[in-house]
Specification:
Elements (H helix, E strand, L loop, with lengths): L1 H8 L10 H14 L7 E2 L1 H8 L3 H13 L3 E4 L3 E4 L4 H20 L9 H15 L3 H17 L4 H18 L5 H5 L1 H14 L3 H28 L7
Antiparallel strand pairs: 1-3, 2-3
Length: 234
């Protein structure tokens, strides 16, 4: 399998002190990138062999990712990449709105260190120019991750890392990523320019509306996929 060949390339990231946390980091990234789509059964033998880790280490990594709601264990069947419900998507956006808007609200006095946010905007525009819509999705997630990072809180970063990874489980089920992500390129740029101008309150209002619109659009598309039974069984 191509994804396992790519996974073997990650073995070097483990170093000599392989741990379940490092394995979980690798698998989390691969799940977020779509190498293991929702509903995919994860083979202990194949993944353990590709990464060169023990069965116990891999099982502990699976346990960590199950706790993060990225994987689900099914009795007598194995471990699968989780398939979100519409209610899951709604709850993810509730969390995003609470955290991201609070981060912007708490920024304090300008100027703000927006270099990484600006880089994410540029990455999204570049990917759109090349018609790489999954790249646009990735850049959009990076944009929001860097917004959250403005809080300077390692715990908030860790929380939202899991939330964004879980969100991408829904993105991977959507069959038209351009329609889903392209409209937000201009809105990312608008948010960046508003923050660059030091207009924190305006930025918070823009962000709240942005997240509400994004939630509504994704729930509509995702809900129709669920209704048609087009999600994989996981």
């Amino acid at each position: 399998m191509a994804e396992l060949n790519g996974l073997a390339d990650d073995r070097a990231l483990l170093g000599r002190t392989s741990t379940a946390e490092r394995v979980a980091d690798i698998l989390r990234s691969r799940i977020a990138e779509g190498y293991f789509p929702p509903g995919t059964r994860l083979s202990e033998d194949s993944i353990g062999g590709a990464l060169g880790v023990s069965r116990n280490t891999l099982r502990e990594a699976f346990r960590l990712l199950t706790h993060e709601r990225l994987l689900v264990h099914q009795l007598n069947r194995g471990v699968f990449v989780r398939v979100l419900t519409v209610e899951d998507v709604e709850d993810i956006y509730l969390t995003r709105r609470l955290v991201e808007c609070a981060v912007v609200r708490g920024l304090g006095r300008p100027p703000y260190d927006l270099g990484a946010v600006a880089d994410a905007v540029a990455d999204g525009l570049r990917a759109a120019k090349e018609r790489e819509w999954k790249g646009v999705s990735t850049a959009n997630i990076h944009f929001h991750r860097e917004l959250v990072a403005l809080a300077g809180s390692a715990r908030t970063d860790e929380l939202m890392r899991s939330v964004f990874a879980e969100l991408r489980l829904a993105f991977h089920v959507v069959d038209d990523p351009r329609r889903l992500h392209e409209p937000y390129l201009a809105r990312n740029q608008q948010l960046l320019e508003t923050l660059e101008a030091g207009r924190r309150d305006d930025a918070e209002r823009l962000l709240a509306q942005y997240l509400d619109d994004s939630r509504e659009g994704l729930v509509d598309v995702y809900g129709r996929r669920v209704a048609k039974g087009e999600q994989p069984d996981g």
